[in-house]
Amino acid sequence: MKILSIETSCDETAAAVVEDGREVLSSVIASQVEEHKLYGGVVPEIASRRHAEAIVPVVQKALDDAKLNMDDIDAIAVTHAPGLIGALLVGVNFAKGLSLSTGKPLVPTHHLRSHIASNYISHKELKPPFMCLVVSGGHSHIVMVEDYTKMKVIGRTRDDAAGEAFDKAARTMGMPYPGGIEMDKIAEFGNPDAFEFPRPVVRDAPYDFSFSGLKTCVINLIHNMEQRGEEIPREDICASFRSAVVELLVSNTMKACEDYGVNTLVVAGGVSANSLLRKRLGGESQKRGINFFKPDKSVCTDNAAMVGSQGYYEYLSGNIADLSLNAAATLPIDYR
Fold first, then answer.
1. Do 209 and 249 touch, CB atoms closer than 8 A?
2. Which of 117, 138, 312, 331 could form a disulfide with 21 if both were Cys (CB 3.0 to 4.6 A apart)?
């Protein structure tokens, strides 16, 4: 089964053709990162306009690269939630128009479920059930994936997401957007024990995260050093901050795996490309005899191939939409 998939939840206009949920026949991404760097982050109105400009050529290229036309496509999957509402609407409305004009089924697909599905592309042997740590710029969740479309949230952030904390700390040090990627590179040259940052714990919720205090701590440290005219040791701050964030993510995730008795752990989302996080999760999983899966870095960030993978399983479960489908800025990953 061949699915044409569309992703426009943030600042990448993407389209792909995926066969049977695992085989990527084409994947095209038009990134807006360079433009948003000028503003230090994504500007929603600009993102929406660029999606509207790019979506037709991106979808056409995905079909061309796969050497297919719409007659060869069995269904159209589109990210409808969560994300920037204006950006989502471009993809959803384009997919609805394409569905109406071709008669192909329309499959609404959840962005975070798609991130999890990126592992099905990287590891064709992977099947639920498993525990998954989903970490991105806007989300930090520990999810029990019971089946391809049946999920239960075990833990979540109470405030900032891990990726958001990385990006804001990096921005304070003058690093370009997206700062988390730059911070990860610089951290390799620093001392992770140079600064003692807090490891917040959420009382009575052992799997939940809280990153706002940690983020504020590093921002205050940098501002105070600047006010005193001191040189900012960026390498050491990046290494210490990264170590604190990763320690929180790994410790809560491992506790969830142990308490729920799972033997398979998966990581997904943009922050799953973080080198220390991948290393620590792999090491701790090995100690406990847990099978650990991580997506190829090429599919960690937003792309449409992951949407096509998850869309395949949504289609098999009967999740087909009509033309009343709308975009949603927020939607739980465990929605039914």
1. yes
2. 312
- Looking at residue 180, what is its pLDDT? 87
Contact 244, 270 (CB under 8 A): no
Residue 41 lies in a domain: yes
Predicted confidence band at 179 (pLDDT cuts at 50, 70, 90)?
confident
Q: In this prediction, what percent of the chain has a pLDDT beyond 90? A: 92
Structural domain range at position 168: 128-295
CA dist list (Å): 261 to 254, 264, 273, 288? 10, 9, 26, 11
| CA 32 – CA 335 distance, rounded (Å) | 30
How many domains are contained in the chain?
A: 2
* Residues whose CB falls within 8 Å of the CB of residue 64, separated by 6 or more in sequence, listed in order: 26
Residue 336 pLDDT exceeds 80: no
Contacts 24+ apart (CB under 8 A), 168-172: 168/215, 168/219, 169/215, 169/218, 169/219, 169/222, 169/237, 169/241, 170/238, 171/40, 171/41, 172/218, 172/219, 172/222, 172/223
3-state secondary structure of 245: helix
Asked whether the CA dihedral 81, 84, 87, 90 is positive or negative, the reply is positive
Asked if residue 336 is part of any domain, the answer here is no
Q: What is the pTM of this model?
A: 0.95
Q: What percent of the chain has pLDDT over 70?
A: 100
Here the CATH number for the domain that contains residue 29 is: 3.30.420.40
Same-domain status, 40 and 15: yes
Q: Are residues 135 and 36 in the same domain?
A: no
In a domain, 28, yes or no: yes
Query: Are residues 310 and 225 part of one domain?
Result: no
Q: Specify whether 107 is located in the same domain as 186.
A: no
